[in-house]
Amino acid sequence: MLTPELLHGLRNLALAARRAAEGFLNGAHASRRHGAGMEFSQYRPYQPGDDLRRLDWRLAARSDRYYLREAEVDTSLTVHLLLDASASMNHRDDNGLTKLGYARLLLAALAYLAQQQGDAVGLTILAPAGLRHLPARADARQLPRIYHALETVEAQGHFPDPATLAPLTARRERALTVCVSDLYEEGTEISALLAQLRAVSGEVLLLHVLANNELEFTYEGNITFKDLETGRSLQLDADQQRPAYQEQLGRWLHNTAQSARRQGFDYHQLNTSQPLDGALREFLRRRNSAG
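Structure tokens predicted for DUF58 domain-containing protein:
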């Protein structure tokens, strides 16, 4: 099992992306048994190191099994990756990994999967000082560009204002948009952006990243919390506040998921202590239906 800590410990984003993507595909294949009498004469099982451009994504999404086609087919599309780089993404889990660090690993693995399939993949980093945008491309040099942008990004400030975000929705371009964010917002600025992107681009997959220590509220005793974006601090007794916190968090997560789906987004919650497999599987399913 390739945990986020192990991938982060490689200190090499390109290697971590490849290990995560190929480990996911190989693990999913190995965990399934073939039904009696099933014949796939035009396929062969995926093996680590195989060219992912020959992977039959439609069959994988239907059966959760991974096979290569004997003959390639053109199923490419445009994948637009969005990273929320506001300061709240600096929140650190008990495993030492920040939300931003987890998002780096995930987006690098998604870019690798998309590029190997022949998709044009782009990246936009959403920062208050301005957008860092890599237009979608399918050439061999795109992955190093994306890895470099992810490796050098720093989370700071608030989520960008509408004027900063305007270039993202100015042009209609059919794409699968994948947004990684902790959804920390003052109002509805993140969901408003995604609603606009769905209107001009099509499919939106929202990957909601949360740290395990905030999901489980693992803190104990008297503790001071500091808002990473406003600087405000709050002192409380963690043991005393735990039941109320968990009840309020559960209500917020339920409402957030419902609201996202009402707006037509595919929503998936992530935990920074868990492997990337769930998010990679959601991407595969959404990619199949969008292609």
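DSSP finds ten helices and ten strands in the chain.
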